[in-house]
Each structure stands twice: as structure tokens, then as C-alpha cells.
């Protein structure tokens, strides 16, 4: 197996080990044992525990941002796409956080150690919003004194409470969806052409 | 001194002890020692460590929300009052977090243990925004399909990234003030009468 070992296989095994042992205890040796290979084979793909952790974070975060590309690329009116994008991201996070709080906390802890990966993820998300807004502006569906890039960043900031794991403990209360809906209403009213 | 001991004196001593030892290590006995009284005298005011912690949290959070009442009560146009309110709260939090990160983290940790106190504080802040918005609506300076109460809650959610201690680690970067300014622009455009 060692010869055919792919980075993807290492990633899957690493996620499995991290879930079971938690990020503090999991080691590269555990991942190698899980795969039945030497730890040297794992290091060939990921030269350090930090590199492996970054790859796991990236993999996890891409599972959240990749499906949103479909929303960005859809032909629906831009205001509706923004609302769908925000609802979808927030719902995915809440589902994970409420269904398996421990796994969610584990991923949050792993990602917290990969600041550059998280920053890149956040930039990707804000950029998705900016692209919807740029498209909406060019179609006359949206308008602002801000540029599309600035407006995308602003909308991303405005919905952070509904998406950022730091607030997961507050998502269990009633009315979260309505609260998000109201933020969307104010924000989308703020981007309406006059 | 024990006879004249006020709740306020206990609070001041408790804050001092918490700063020095941290919330995990500080005990009611430490507070009593600081005051030169028996721990029974402290318990007369605060029947448990949790009650003392809640009081310290409340005292700290009131120091943040009390000065904002002036902004709410000012005669400036409502959109300007909202912007000032948001800037003032965010600036106060950032100043504390950047000037004395350890003390800020200590307060955050204390407050995290006092969830009801934090919830009441957040309700107070959202209510301040709602009152500005209600006033602005009655003066024809603001409008929305939402009620003033819903809109206040929405604006509060929209600026959480700039005020919530969970994001303090990200406030050191460049452009935080501009980013807040842009969120205010979108939100205030969303509350403009049409």
C-alpha cells in the first residue's frame, strides 16, 4: 500500500484519527498506523504535523465553500442569490454544530491552528459575495456607493454571527433563521438601486 | 471595616483579585484577604463565587453600555447616532483588547461564565439601537419593512464581528475601521426612507 499511497488517502485517514483522538492527541504516527504504513510515507506527503493539519482544515473548509459556487453561478436575480448563499452557509454550519457538536468543535480547533488557511477561506467566501454583487450591479439589480468588492466584504462581515464557529453556542436558541432573514432584509435594502 | 463593607467595595476588590490571579484561581477567600475581612463578610453580599463573578461581569459590561446611552439620547440625526454608537462600542472594545490583551481575555473568560448577564447586556445594546431607530422612524429619518425592534436586533447582529471578544484576535489587522464603516454604509442605506 505504501507505494500507492496518495495525499487524499492520508487526508481521509488523518480526519478519521483527528475525530477519534482530538487535535491535541492525534499524531502523524497514529495516521501512519491507521494506514498500515511507516510514518515516513505520511511525511512524504505532509512534511510536518502542521502541514497535515492545514490540509485537513483546507479540505473541511472547501466542503463548505465549494457548493456555494453553484449559488454564485446561478442565473437567479442577484438579491435572491445573496440570500440563498447566506442561508445555505449558515444552515450548513448550524447543522454540523447542532448534530455533532464535538466533531464541530474538533474541526474548529483544528482550523484555529491554521490561520492562513482560515484567512484564505474567508477571502474565498467574501469573494463569492463580491462576484454576485458585481454581477447584480452590472445587471442593474443592485447598487451601492461601495465597490462590489467592498460590498461583498461588508455583507460577509454582517452575517458572521450566523456562520462563525465562535458563535455556535448561541445557534440553538429560537429565532436564529428569522434573525438571519432580517439581517438579509436590511443588507439587501442597502444594496437596492434607487 | 467589616461592618461598613459595601457591595461596591467587594466588587472593586474582586476585580483586582481576578486581574491578578485569573478567574480560574481567584477565590472568595482571596477577595476577603484583599479587604482584610472574613470570607463570611464577602458572602453576605455575594452568596456564591458565581454570584460574585456575575456581579463583576455586570459591572464591566455596564461600563461599556452606560456611555452609549448618551449617544441614544443625543439630538443628532438617527443615522449619525447609529454610526457613532457602533464606532464607539467597537473602538472601546478594540482599545481594551489591544492595550491589555490579557486583562481583556480575563474579562471575556469571566463573562463567558455569566451567560445570563451577557444575554442581558446584549439585549441592552440591541435595545439602544432599536430606540435610536424608533426615534429615527418617527422623525422620518429612517424607514424599513422591519419594526424598530427587529431592525435594532439586525443592526446589532450585523456589527458583531467588530464588537464581540471572540473576534479580538482579528482586530489588529489593517482596515478594521474602514471595514466597519462599510458595514455601516450598507446597513444605513438599508434603513433609508425611499
Notes on the structure:
The structure is a homodimer of 194-residue chains. The first copy, chain A, has 194 residues and is an all-alpha fold. Chain A folds into two domains: 2-47, Homeodomain-like (Arc Repressor Mutant, subunit A); 58-190, Tetracycline Repressor, domain 2. The first copy, chain A, has helices at 7-21, 28-35, 39-45, 49-65, 68-73, 78-99, 101-112, 115-138, 148-158, 176-190.
Give the gist of this structure.
The first copy, chain A, is mostly helical. In chain A, 71% of the residues lie in helices and 0% in strands. The first copy, chain A, has helices spanning 7-21, 28-35, 39-45, 49-65, 68-73, 78-99, 101-112, 115-138, 148-158, 176-190.
Q: Helix and strand layout, with pairings?
A:
The structure is a homodimer of 194-residue chains.
Chain A: H1 7-21, H2 28-35, H3 39-45, H4 49-65, H5 68-73, H6 78-99, H7 101-112, H8 115-138, H9 148-158, H10 176-190
Helix pairs in contact in A: 1-2, 1-4, 2-3, 4-8, 6-7, 6-8, 6-10, 8-9
Keywords (chains A, B): DNA-binding, Transcription, Transcription regulation
Organism (chains A, B): Oryzihumus leptocrescens
DNA-binding region (chains A, B): 27-46
Amino acid at each position: 500500500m505504501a507505494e500507492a499511497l496518495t495525499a487524499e488517502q492520508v487526508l481521509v485517514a488523518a480526519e478519521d484519527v483527528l475525530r477519534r483522538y482530538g487535535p491535541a492527541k492525534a499524531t502523524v504516527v497514529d495516521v501512519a498506523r491507521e494506514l498500515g504504513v511507516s510514518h515516513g510515507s505520511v511525511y512524504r506527503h505532509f512534511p510536518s504535523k502542521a502541514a497535515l493539519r492545514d490540509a485537513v482544515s483546507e479540505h473541511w473548509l472547501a466542503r463548505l465553500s465549494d457548493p456555494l459556487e453553484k449559488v454564485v453561478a446561478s442565473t437567479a436575480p442577484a438579491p435572491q442569490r445573496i440570500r440563498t448563499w447566506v442561508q445555505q452557509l449558515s444552515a450548513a454550519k448550524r447543522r454540523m454544530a447542532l448534530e455533532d457538536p464535538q466533531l464541530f468543535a474538533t474541526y474548529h480547533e483544528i482550523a484555529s491552528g491554521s490561520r492562513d488557511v482560515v484567512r484564505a477561506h474567508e477571502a474565498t467566501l467574501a469573494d463569492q459575495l463580491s462576484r454576485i454583487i458585481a454581477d447584480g450591479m452590472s445587471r442593474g439589480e443592485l447598487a451601492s456607493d461601495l465597490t462590489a468588492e467592498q460590498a461583498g466584504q461588508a455583507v460577509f462581515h454582517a452575517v458572521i454571527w450566523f456562520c462563525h464557529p465562535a458563535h455556535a453556542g448561541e445557534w440553538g436558541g429560537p429565532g436564529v433563521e428569522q434573525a438571519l432573514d432580517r439581517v438579509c432584509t436590511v443588507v439587501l435594502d442597502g444594496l437596492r438601486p434607487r
